[in-house]
Design a protein that fits this description.
- The termini are far apart.
- The protein folds into 2 domains: about 130 residues, NADH Oxidase; about 80 residues, NADH Oxidase.
- It contains 7 helices and 7 strands; from the N terminus they run ααβαβαββααββαβ.
- Helix 7 links the parallel strand 6 and strand 7.
- About 40% of the residues are buried.
- The radius of gyration is 18 Å and the shape is globular.
- Helix 2 runs antiparallel to helix 4.
- With about 230 residues, it is α+β, with helices and mostly antiparallel strands.
- The mean pLDDT is about 95.
- It has a 4-stranded antiparallel beta sheet.
Length: about 230
Amino acid sequence: MKKMTLQEAILARHSVRAYKELPLTDADAQSLQEKIDEVNRAGQLHIQLIRNEPKAFLGPFARYGKFSGVTDYLVMAGVKADDLDERIGYYGEQLVLFAQTIGLNTCWVGLSYTKVPGTYVLNDGEAIQAYIAIGYGKTQGVSHKIKRIAQVSNASDNTPEWFIRGVEAALLAPTAINQQKFSFEYIGMKDGLHQVRAKKGFSLVGYTHMDLGIAKYHFEVAAGKENFIWA
């Protein structure tokens, strides 16, 4: 069977909270671990795959988040830094879309989990910023209402087509309570390269740095990294 592309994964991926009580297959876990190792190196992170561990999603926080059947998840950790949340989002979403391409479902989790001692390792100066539930969903999830391109960008008849594709993909990115507090600005050419500026908005909910990292990765996938540089 032909493997799903990243752009197809962006369209297919929806947050899933209810999972079949099936552990990850060894093959899927190995593929996922190889990708985790790759993004940990690239993003200087300490993301960890936890398998066959139901307690993190059995407490009151998980019930509030309406999770069920979660036995496998990612602990999203790294050394504390001003840009940690954005890197967690950017590289974590690479894992989310990769998981979608191999038939797994996921859900970013900011608060609705319990840290279970002994299941993860934190080195000096490291912190956990989020979890990602992962497994075989009972459904494929559902789409949610999204903002219009004009609400989050300066796209016009004069901006490149790839820029519009990028914004469309960013609007399909998961964000905390679907808040979509980000924007993309096409700046123009400098030194022969198109420039794009991505900004986070303000939110009382928080997680805007992480959301921006997630949205930027979606933008890159659809726009093509070869077409622009970040300003």
